[in-house]
Specification:
The complex is a heterodimer of chains A (263) and B (247). With 263 residues, chain A is mainly alpha-helical. Chain A has helices at residues 2-31, 41-50, 52-86, 88-103, 106-116, 120-144, 149-157, 162-200, 209-218, 222-251. Chain B is an alpha/beta fold and 247 residues long. Chain B folds into two domains: 2-68 and 144-243, P-loop containing nucleotide triphosphate hydrolases (Rossmann fold), CATH 3.40.50; 77-143, no CATH class. In chain B, helix 2 (84-94) runs parallel beside helix 4 (128-140) and helix 6 (186-192) crosses helix 8 (226-243). Helices cover 38% and strands 25% of the residues of chain B. In chain B, strand 8 and strand 9 form a beta hairpin. The longest helix of chain B is centred in the last third of the chain and has 18 residues, at 158-175. Chain B has a six-stranded mixed beta sheet with strand order 5-6-7-3-8-9, with helices on both faces. The chains are: A mainly alpha (263), B alpha/beta (247). The interface between A and B is medium-sized, with 21 and 22 residues.
Chain lengths: 263, 247
């Protein structure tokens, strides 16, 4: 029964989500919880619509930082991964730096970057990039080395050029690993963009959702904090959905990760 | 004319293990030879030396200059992201032959190996036998004069293996190529080959060379004949002797 399967796949999580929101609404209304402590979902929605003009500008800014950083992370991660895959020496020389950047919390590095870089936008971009690029780098390095040794032998027997080996063997082998990295990095670059902006405490015209949340918290406008939070979450969910679709589109036919359950 | 020769070859791996010690063999053009031995006796290493995938530590590996070689591994070794057609196309693609030109050669080949209609199927949609057929089609697409096979049917069920054995023999008889067939199955070696080279282990060497004196075409009748049982026993005993020799 296909419709039943569909219902279980989409209907169940949707029902649980709606149920939780409804419960929240009821709890707030029944107990008369004031909106400056916990606003009801309906109130958050109204606030979101009322303030959409100012919030949308900030939202767009956060989206730009997130995807800009992700793009740079993808390009930088793949280039560095290729260099690592080509030469163990390069890997040994540079990998410690990548690890240091990865393990140092971004909130601790962000103030320094904000001091050194004049443009806040550029500083935020760098912060988000630092958080996002490591999963792409490490996954792609593994992926480029994961090719079947027998296939490597086969390419050797047929005297493939290095370019053919790269295009026909290494890139397709690394693709699922890269996509897995991209899925992680997509979420992380959003976190990086928001966290860095919190640290920056940026004010002015060119600011993102984090600044709206900070402003609202200074004025104890709790419903507005929630409204901005909703937009951050929406962005994160959208990133997740987009990369899952991309993964299914690119790997759907052949990769085990995208096969339906055999039940 | 000798197509494949190992002349007193030693092979020592970086780990210090001697895979082969003074191993010699010679295979004539057009012969079907089985290389039989227990696992770890260096038969795959012998095949890899002949394919040029390894270099000998000592001794000489000689391959006829005119020979064109293909290798079939124990695993089908297909590219999971490519369908059957693209997998078979790979050797031609590397040689710079475009898809449409290759199609004229690949279509009849897929027909011949029993894969007609499966051009668009991906490896994860194929049975083990079909994957191995794809792997063999890829090996044959370059029209090799020498086919090196490294336990190609070891992972298949018996019925599928028999069928692939018969198809392989039919192809060999029709195209007169040289086949070196590595196996650990006495019965498979006795069923397929004109000659069985029996290897001993630790270090690997060719211990016995037995001719299988039975006419082709061979079929189920050969597999159930008294003569076959005698041959299989002789091969078994040679294998036993090679394995229990001085270590």
């Amino acid at each position: 029964m296909k419709s039943l399967a569909h219902l279980r796949e989409y209907g169940l999580p949707l029902a649980v989500f709606v149920g939780v929101i409804a419960l929240w609404e009821i709890v707030v209304r029944v107990n008369g919880i004031p909106h400056y402590i916990l606003p009801a979902p309906s109130r958050v929605m109204v606030t979101l619509i009322d303030n959409f003009g100012s919030l949308a500008t900030s939202w767009w800014f956060t989206i730009k930082i997130t995807f800009g950083a992700l793009l740079l992370a993808a390009v930088g991660g793949v280039l560095l991964a290729s260099a690592f895959a080509l030469s163990r020496t390069v890997e040994r020389a540079l990998f410690p730096f990548a690890i240091v950047l990865q393990v140092t919390p971004i909130v601790a590095i962000a103030p320094l970057i904000l001091i050194y870089i004049n443009s806040t936008t550029a500083a935020l971009l760098i912060c988000a990039w630092i958080v996002a690029f490591f999963p792409i780098l490490s996954n792609t390095v593994i992926g480029l080395r994961a090719a079947d040794p027998n296939l490597h032998d086969l390419f050797r027997l047929y005297r493939a050029t290095p370019w053919q080996r790269l295009r026909l063997l290494l890139v397709p082998t690394a693709l699922p690993y890269f996509i897995a990295g991209l899925k992680i990095s997509g979420g992380l670059s959003l976190i990086g963009a928001v966290v860095a902006e919190f640290t920056a405490g940026a004010a002015g015209r060119e600011t993102g959702l984090a600044s709206r949340i900070l402003e609202a918290s200074f004025r104890t406008e709790i419903p507005k904090m929630y409204a901005a939070l909703v937009l951050v979450s929406l962005t994160g969910v959208a990133i997740f959905v987009v990369f899952n679709l991309l993964s299914r589109w690119l790997l759907g036919r052949w990769h085990a990760a995208e096969q339906p359950d055999l039940k | 004319m000798q197509t494949l020769v190992l002349d007193a070859v030693d092979k020592r791996f970086a780990t210090g293990v001697w895979a082969l010690r003074a191993a010699s063999l010679a295979i004539e053009a057009g012969e079907f030879v089985a290389l039989l031995g227990p696992s770890g006796c260096g038969k795959s290493t012998a095949l890899r030396l002949l394919a040029g995938l390894e270099a000998p530590t000592q001794g000489a590996v000689r391959v006829d200059r005119a020979a064109t070689m293909s290798v079939v591994f124990q695993e089908p070794t297909l590219m999971p992201w490519s369908n059957v057609f693209d997998n078979v196309w790979l050797p031609l693609r590397i040689a710079g032959i475009a898809r449409d030109t290759a199609r004229e050669r690949i279509a009849p080949l897929l027909e011949a190996v029993g894969l007609a209609g499966f051009e668009g199927a991906f490896p994860n949609e194929l049975s083990g036998g079909m994957k191995m057929r794809t792997s063999i089609a890829r090996a044959l697409v370059t029209r090799p004069s020498v086919l090196l096979m490294d336990e190609p049917f070891a992972a298949l069920d018996e019925i599928t293996r028999y069928r692939l054995n018969d198809d392989l023999l039919a192809w060999w008889r029709a195209h007169r190529l040289t086949v070196l067939f590595v196996t650990h199955s006495v019965f498979e070696a006795a069923y397929l080959s004109q000659r069985v080279l029996v290897m001993g282990a630790r270090p690997g060497r060719v211990a016995a060379d037995l001719a299988i004196d039975a006419p082709y075409p061979r079929s189920a009748a050969w597999r159930t004949s008294v003569r076959y049982a005698q041959v299989a026993r002789a091969v078994s005993e040679a294998l036993e002797a090679a394995s229990s020799g001085p270590t």
